[in-house]
Amino acid sequence: MCVPYDSTPPVAPISGAAIDTQDLVLASRDGTKFAAYHASAGRPGSAGVVVMPDVRGLFRFYEQLADRFAEQGMDAVAIDYFGRTAGVGKRGEDFPFMEHVQQTRAASVAEDVGAAVKFLRQSEGDGRRAVFTVGFCFGGSNSWLQAAAGHGLAGAIGFYGRPTSPGWDGSAAPIDRAAEFACPVLALMGGADQGIPVSDVERFERELERAGKVYGAKVYEGAPHSFFDRRYEEFSEASADAWERVLDFMSRHSS
């Protein structure tokens, strides 16, 4: 599991920032309806961000993170993964998320991301805006995979995703699809993550390098899985640095 239900992003709100927010129900290419949350910066020409949650799916942590992106001038849509198995309603802390994670399919996740990307581009009006994915844990791995999903992304960012692990449906791991990546990627990892050895991150980097891809990677020494959380005050500097790297990555690859 990643962040607890009552966690909050380690990014302070910007006082006085004017953003608009709304709950959404989007439709995937196969007709499935799924829950999403939209935070709008209200600025023409701004970049777009698809926020991909951890194994819990869509809940308040990721809605708040979408707000933080909007305060930075980027429209954001945080998506849920479980429209096919759990519907579109709001869920509490007792939601049995793992039984739904185990039913996810890489192709369906990509279709849902595609619907969110389409929404962000349609709201811009001309379809040309730069769109990024940023994901965490389960969403981190899936965010990297979107670089090979044909969305025309400007970049794909993953926090503590598993670069060498296949999907629950046996689909290819990010490292195995690196040669197909069509946009830059960024990996932000915990050096003390017990589930993701640093050697796996290094293997991922070597494969990206071998494939000639544009990428960035940072391993935060001593940081655990899910360090990007306000509860981890001892890793506040790592979180602040990671946030700055995300914003810098998006700024450099938006044009």
Would you kindly provide a written description of the structure presented here, covering whatever features stand out?
The protein contains seven helices and eight strands, in the order βββαβαααβαββαβα. It is of the alpha/beta class and 255 residues long. The chain has one domain: Alpha/Beta hydrolase fold, catalytic domain (Rossmann fold, 3-Layer(aba) Sandwich), CATH 3.40.50.1820. The protein has an eight-stranded mixed beta sheet with strand order 1-2-4-3-5-6-7-8, with helices on both faces. Helix 5 links the parallel strand 5 and strand 6. The longest helix has 19 residues. It is globular. The N and C termini lie far apart (36 Å).
Q: Characteristics of this structure?
A:
255 residues, Rossmann fold, eight-stranded mixed beta sheet, alpha/beta
Rg, Å, rounded? 17 Å
> Strands of the largest sheet, in order across it?
1-2-4-3-5-6-7-8
Number of DSSP-assigned strands:
8
In the CATH hierarchy, the third-tier topology is known as: Rossmann fold
On the 0 to 100 scale, the average pLDDT is 95
Tell me briefly what this model is.
Strand 7, helix 6 (198-210) and strand 8 (215-220) form a beta-alpha-beta unit. The chain is α/β, with parallel strands linked by helices and 255 residues long.
